[in-house]
# Entry
Amino acid sequence: MFQVRIHGRGGQGVVTAAEMLSVAAFLEGKYAQAFPSFGSERMGAPVMAFCRISDKEIRLREPIMEPNAVIVQDSTVIDSADAFRGVVEKGFILVNSTNDIICNLKNVTLKCIGATEIALEHIGRPIPNAVLLGSFAGLTGILKLESVIEAIKTKFSGAIAEKNIHAARVAYDKTLGEA
Amino acid sequence: MLYQLEGSHAIARTVALCRPGVVCAYPISPQTHILEGLEELIRGKKLENCEYLNVESEMGALSVAIGGEAAGVRSYTATSSQGLLYMIEAVYNASGLELPIVMTLGNRALGAPINIWNDHSDAMSARDAGWIMFFAETNQEAADLHILAFKVAEKVHCPVIVNVDGFILTHAYDRVDIPSQDKVDDFLPPYAPKASLDVNHPVAIGTMVPPEYFMEVRHLAHRKQEDSLAVIECTAHAFEKKFGRNSGGLLRRYGSPNADTVIVAMGSVAGTIKDAVDELNQEGGQFEELSIICYRPFPAEALRNSLKNAKRIIVVEKSLAVGIGGILSREVELTMKGCDVDVITVVAGLGGRNITKSMLKECFNKKSHEKITFLGLRNDIIGKQYVPINGDCC
# Structure
């Protein structure tokens, strides 16, 4: 089982990101379970969402405390939300930031990408979720970019979908190029 | 067809396949997405010949469903928590009038203090209201139970509450099979009301019943619920035959058969318990999980048969009757009266408190238990806040 925890703020599409991740995994024939940390979905408030991906049916209903990957959509929540807590060995941390981030965990792959900047350039709005999913696919190899793109299409339509897909592709290529 | 869907939308789509003619809507978390989903389906003409009514309160929602059903139309609504309390008079009326309404309860704690998160306190407040009550373990089962609910309700003329854990299921994206309209139509034919209000053929529904008859009315309601047990089992078999999966029924067992310790639970926590049981059994333990799917009517005989070899029964329940303790565990204890077995109450997950696999394993592995355990209780807070009241009368 591969477990992902997503941190960010209300309005950045954190819950939607977890849902899209689960749809992408579903499209690859896997079992997936996405759910928000409930009750805090207000604009600007710290928000968490979770996604489990597995080859078998997922029965577990506890929050994800030992993630294989963490995605941080807003680096200002890292300290207050203790965003890197519990990340397992050989896990991944993907942070939306143009600055370097300090992480004391050993044996973890840390990647920073300016997802808001990419979103502003290609989508025209500072919504980094789809961008980060593109980067996540490149960083972890857990999902194919094509599945992420198909998942984006289930949440967005028309020009907005096209722009998000393009931005996700840019982030995917950038992440692979810098690997 | 398989989809990756939010639980609430899986329920909305499945309810739509049951072709209700009246859907009454009043929002309350965590069920709101279900009624929003139905509104979208009706607006998009995916569900036709259905009147979607925005009402002024939960009392209005169930009252309109009562009116719809009394006029011979399949009727549906959904609520949670305080919403159920607000409609409680209508809850008793719906069952007393034998109207087969189906209502989803997105399970949530009751205030005060206000809390929007999941537990089963709301369901327990309606446990004696004469409705059939199902509890869903997964979103697949949550969706399927609605098809079963309409089928059973209309067969026995009794309303059904489908309990779905708020947020944990209603807001979770999972893989769900949504059956075809043809299959659902085949399983659930159009509603044939027992009696309906019709100006051309006047009948009275809900007349006053004096002491000479009231006890008989209640007795018959009780007998009907008891008889419904067989209907619920049989309908679940028919469902499995038609749709190819096991959903609903009275109860479900998992793990080591004839285990010393059986964990009894209702709803989505069963999934986490199953994972805990698997690990404990791999470590050499003897544990079984038993889910009660049909809570009302209470499947006492089936439960007693399933638990007859148990040495220890741990009931994990998401509710608390203040002043007495466990609710489900009392019922299990009564069911096992005369058997040499310990029934242990574990109150868990109140107001959305996390229930983790490791907490459960630790609890199940303990050799001895208090009569009642509060899983994950913060004793630091209790230590500061609990002030014993001295026994003087003044």
